[in-house]
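task queued by scheduler; priority normal; single chain, no ligands, no partner chains; default sampling; output format set to structure tokens
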Amino acid sequence: MEFAELVGPEGAVLAFEPSPANQSRLKAAVEQLSNVVIVPVALGAEDAMARFQQGGDPLGATSKLLNASSPGAEASLEVRVARGDTLVSAGMAPSPNVIKIDTEGAEVEVLHGLDHVLNAPELHTLCIEVHFGLLNERGMKDGPRQVERILAAVGFGCRWPDSSHIVATRSAR
């Protein structure tokens, strides 16, 4: 709700949420906000279908995409994954000024799907929750450094306000 207030009535908040259960909760939470749009897809490096495991916590905050070989994959949901670049170029999403990423270990893949968006002059800030444990489970021990390298390569300076969040900013181009 804070993001909806920050962008005001002329702005928009797009919430990418692949989980039907989480979509329902989110829809109920923002139903009075006309500037929030829920997009029922996961963001990733490729346009594809993927397996998705609903988190067991009350808010579904531990939900995540799975590899086909992941334990529990056979009992998971199939969801659509889209590159952010695809959605923007197809006119399904505007080019953003600010991006918040909280993708339970898929941070690197999401950034790889945003190649063009990351270079857009209007994008000035990214806030990323980095899930060290989930990245390690996926064999991406260097995932946090990959995130920093991807962002630095397109002119963002990164800072860690705490041990699990990156705030990346770039001056206006």
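post-processing summary
- The radius of gyration is 16 Å.
- The longest strand covers residues 48-53.
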